[in-house]
C-alpha cells in the first residue's frame, strides 16, 4: 500500500482540536504551578497559538507587572487583566496561561466557562515556594513573609481554582510528563473513552 492509501491515523491531539472547535484551553492556578511553561509546551503539542495573559498585559501597558502594581496598584492591574483575557478569549482556539489571580474574578470565570476548557494546575505549598523563590517578578510575594502569603492565598484561592473543568497535579516531574497528562485528561474529557471499534483495532 502506498503512503497515500494508508488510512489517516487519529491522534489524541487531532481529536482534541476537533472537539474544541473554536474554544481555547485556559490554564489557571497559583503562582509557580507552571501555567506559563506548561502552557507553551501544551500549545506546541496541539499546534495552537500560545498566549500568556501577563505578557499581553505588559505589552498593552508598556510596563512590567511590578511597575503596573507600583505605579497604579493591584486593582488597576486586575481590571486590565480581565479586559485582556476577555479579548483573548474571543480569538480562540488558543492555549492561554492566566496569571494566578485572574480566575478569582467571577466575570472572568464565566467568560472562561463560555469560551474555553479550564485546567487547574495544582501544586503543594512547598513546590510553589521552591519555584517562586527563583524570581522576584511577582509583586504579591515581595513581602517580609512570602511563605505566609502563599499559605493565605492558597487558602483563599484553592476552592475557586477547584471550579476549573479539569485538575492536574503539578509536581517535580519533567515538564513534558505534565503536558502528557494534560493531553490525556483533555482527551478523556472532550472525546470520552475510545470506542469499542477503535479499541479493538489498536489491540
Ligand atoms: N513540572 C515542573 N517541574 C519542574 N519545574 C517546573 C515544572 N513546571 C514548572 N516549573 C518551573 O517553575 C517555575 C514557575 O513556572 P511558571 O510556568 O512561570 O509558573 P506560573 O506561570 O504558573 O507562575 C519555572 O521556573 C518553571 O520552569
Ligand atoms: O497570583 C497572582 O495574583 C499573580 C500572578 C502572576 O502570574 P503567575 O501566576 O504566572 O506567576 C501575575 O499575574 C501577578 O504577579 C499576580
Ligand atoms: Mg505565569
UniProtKB/TrEMBL annotation:
Positions bound to substrate: 54, 78, 100, 157
Known role: Catalyzes the specific phosphorylation of the 3-hydroxyl group of shikimic acid using ATP as a cosubstrate.
InterPro entries linked to this entry: P-loop_NTPase, Shikimate/glucono_kinase, Shikimate_kinase/TSH1, Shikimate_kinase_CS
Protein name per the record: Shikimate kinase
Residues given in the record as Mg(2+) binding sites: 36
Catalytic activity: shikimate + ATP = 3-phosphoshikimate + ADP + H(+)
Family: Belongs to the shikimate kinase family.
Assembly: Monomer.
Subcellular location: Cytoplasm
Names of required cofactors: Mg(2+)
KW Signal (keyword) present: no
Record HAMAP family: Shikimate_kinase
Organism: Bradyrhizobium zhengyangense
EC supergroup of this enzyme: transferase
Enzyme Commission numbers on file: 2.7.1.71
CDD domains recorded: SK (cd00464)
Pfam family, one: SKI
Pathway: Metabolic intermediate biosynthesis; chorismate biosynthesis; chorismate from D-erythrose 4-phosphate and phosphoenolpyruvate: step 5/7
Keywords on record: Amino-acid biosynthesis, Aromatic amino acid biosynthesis, ATP-binding, Cytoplasm, Kinase, Magnesium, Metal-binding, Nucleotide-binding, Transferase
Binding site for ATP: 32-37, 138
Record note on cofactor: Binds 1 Mg(2+) ion per subunit.
Gene Ontology molecular function: shikimate kinase activity
Keyword Iron: no
Amino acid at each position: 500500500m502506498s503512503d497515500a492509501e494508508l488510512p489517516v491515523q487519529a491522534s489524541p491531539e487531532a481529536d482534541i482540536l476537533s472537539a474544541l472547535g473554536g474554544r481555547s484551553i485556559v490554564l489557571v492556578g497559583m503562582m509557580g504551578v507552571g501555567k506559563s511553561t506548561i502552557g507553551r509546551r501544551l500549545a506546541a503539542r496541539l499546534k495552537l497559538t500560545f498566549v500568556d495573559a501577563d505578557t499581553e498585559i505588559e505589552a498593552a501597558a508598556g510596563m512590567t507587572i511590578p511597575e503596573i502594581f507600583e505605579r497604579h496598584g493591584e486593582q488597576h492591574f486586575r481590571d486590565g487583566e480581565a479586559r485582556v483575557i476577555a479579548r483573548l478569549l474571543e480569538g480562540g482556539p488558543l492555549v492561554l496561561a492566566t496569571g494566578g489571580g485572574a480566575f478569582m474574578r467571577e466575570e472572568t470565570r464565566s467568560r472562561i466557562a463560555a469560551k474555553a476548557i479550564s485546567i487547574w494546575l495544582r501544586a503543594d505549598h512547598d513546590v510553589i515556594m521552591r519555584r517562586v523563590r527563583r524570581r522576584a517578578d511577582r509583586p504579591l510575594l515581595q513581602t517580609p513573609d512570602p511563605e505566609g502569603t502563599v499559605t493565605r492565598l492558597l487558602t483563599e484561592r484553592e476552592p475557586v481554582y477547584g471550579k476549573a473543568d479539569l485538575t492536574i497535579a503539578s509536581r517535580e516531574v519533567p515538564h513534558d510528563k505534565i503536558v502528557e497528562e494534560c493531553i490525556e485528561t483533555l482527551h478523556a474529557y472532550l472525546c470520552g473513552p475510545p470506542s469499542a471499534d477503535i479499541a479493538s483495532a489498536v489491540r
